[in-house]
Amino acid sequence: MSQSLDAYLVLASLLFCIGTFGFLARRNAIAMLMSIELMINAVNLVIVAFGAFTPELADRASVIALIVMAVAAAEATVGLAIVIAIYRNRRTPLVDEYHSMRE
Amino acid sequence: MALPPTVPYFDIAWDDLLFLTFGGLMLAAALGVVLGRNIIRSGLAMILSFAALAGIYALLGAPLVAAAQVLIYIGAISVLVLFAIMLTQSKSGPASLVFHHQAWAAALAAIVLALLLVSMVAGAEWPRAVAERVHTATGDVARLLFDEFVLPFEVVSVLLLAAVIGGVFLAKREDTDVPETEAGARQVTLGSEPGGASGRAASGIASATIVAAEDLGRRP
User: What is the pLDDT of residues B18-36, one digit of tens each?
Assistant: First the structure.
């Protein structure tokens, strides 16, 4: 099982779908950001799995995964800073109460 | 001592056992992140999910990526997320309603996406899908990172710098201990133009004007 690429791809697909559900369904902005992190991790797992099963791509997959991790760290920094800035104005982390542009 | 080739009493290889353990742990922790009512427990479950994923990276023969996963995700991003959770906790405790009212549609979309992805993976013929796995040497990765991928490497470092500066600027608390009159003037100004550098400058100008007017009024 652990010797076949399909198992890793199915695992990453399930993780990505869990992240998708969390991003669409949660009300808390930070929970949505955590779901995005889960989706990024799923994509990273796909990259590393393809690299591990393709001999000429093995080193490049590690490099690309590391760069994805750095970009994800930058995304988390800016996203959480935006959430904190909004929380300071609206006093709530729930995204469905950010409706001042609706009416 | 040498391990037997398969797990005793169960006819599965050790790698499969590790894969099932780490994979199951990762999916269970991810479900805990998404479904948990308490947001702090969601954050702790996220750490568990990241740790299990680091184990899967090690199983895939990418030790540098596994180490970076522990360092970056568990060490940096999780701590950042936990700090943000504690900064945005409202006094009334966890919200009574965790999900949107349309959560069933989100669940439907996620399930359909999962079925599509799994059927696609099962139906496709990947090249060398069951070949022997490759183990990457960290030295080769470093050589590649500083030779062929040196431009993306530097661009990512600039991106991280920009993100750090932007994050500090966005999350910076504006100084609250201002004198009474200035605070009042800021309140007036903020009504028309909330926050931002222009708002601060305008409030400074307005407070200076008010102070000058009061001085003029007090003089005989």
Answer: 999 999 999 999 999 999 8
Of A31, A67, A39, whose CA–CA distance to B35 is shortest? A31
Are A48 and B43 an interchain contact pair (Cβ–Cβ within 8 Å)? no
Does A6 contact B126 at a Cβ distance shorter than 8 Å?
Answer: yes
Interface pTM (ipTM) of the complex? 0.92
Q: What is the pLDDT of residue B27?
A: 96
Name the domain count of chain A.
Answer: 1
Helix ranges restricted to H, chain B = 14-35, 39-59, 63-68, 78-87, 103-123, 138-145, 150-171, 180-192, 196-218
How many whole angstroms separate alpha carbon A41 and alpha carbon B7?
29
Count of A-B CB contacts under 8 Å: 260
Among A7, A44, A85, beta carbon nearest to B171: A85
Please report the domains of chain B, with CATH numbers, ordered by start residue.
Answer: 1-90 (1.20.120.1200), 148-220 (no CATH)
Q: Hey, are the CB atoms on B103 and A17 less than 8 Å from each other?
A: no
CB contact under 8 Å between A51 and B136, yes or no, is yes
What is the mean predicted confidence (pLDDT) over A25-29? 91
Closest residue of chain A to B101, computed from CA coordinates: A25
